[in-house]
Design brief:
Keywords: Phosphoprotein. The chain is α/β, with parallel strands linked by helices. About 40% of the residues lie in helices and about 20% in strands.
């Protein structure tokens, strides 16, 4: 069985360590790197051949900036397809919409995961869009109403 290779990026060292620990017990996931900011994310993803970037929304060079950088690197061939999964303590609809517009395929709200983190990350790696949080439905309705197509 091939493992899903994950890079974790969060500026809160305690939370980042907890994410690495939780994902590390899943036999189908291999955490290949962890970062304290989005700086160097694209290079780390390329070097590690990661499948998923689990990225904090409110860290330096995180959130929309990170999603855009990864999307652009995939589009211009510097990276193979990488699933960007945003994680945040807040769930404002406009933030979720912004991340999805920039290519994120997942938005997980800390405290509202409602299931196994490893399973959610693997679903995103397989191409599913996963929005686990109280504003997910409204964010998707907004994208549909605006005619935005997720790619």
């Amino acid at each position: 069985m091939t493992s899903t290779r994950v890079v974790v990026a969060d500026d809160d060292s305690t939370f980042r360590s907890a994410l690495v620990d939780v994902l590390g017990v899943d036999p189908g996931i291999e955490v290949v790197a962890s970062l304290s900011s989005g700086a160097g994310l694209v290079e780390t993803l390329a070097r590690t051949h990661a499948d998923v970037a689990l990225v904090d929304v409110r860290m330096p060079d995180g959130g929309v900036h990170a999603a855009r950088s990864v999307r652009e690197a995939c589009e211009d061939g510097r990276l193979h397809e990488v699933a960007v999964v945003a994680i945040s303590a807040q769930a404002a609809t406009h933030t979720v919409v912004s991340l999805l517009r920039e290519g994120a395929v997942g938005y997980l709200v800390k405290g509202h995961l409602g299931g196994d983190l490893g399973s959610l990350v693997k679903r995103c790696a397989r191409g599913e869009v996963v929005v686990a949080g109280p504003s997910g439905a409204e964010a998707l309705r907004t994208l549909v109403r605006d005619g935005h197509v997720l790619t």
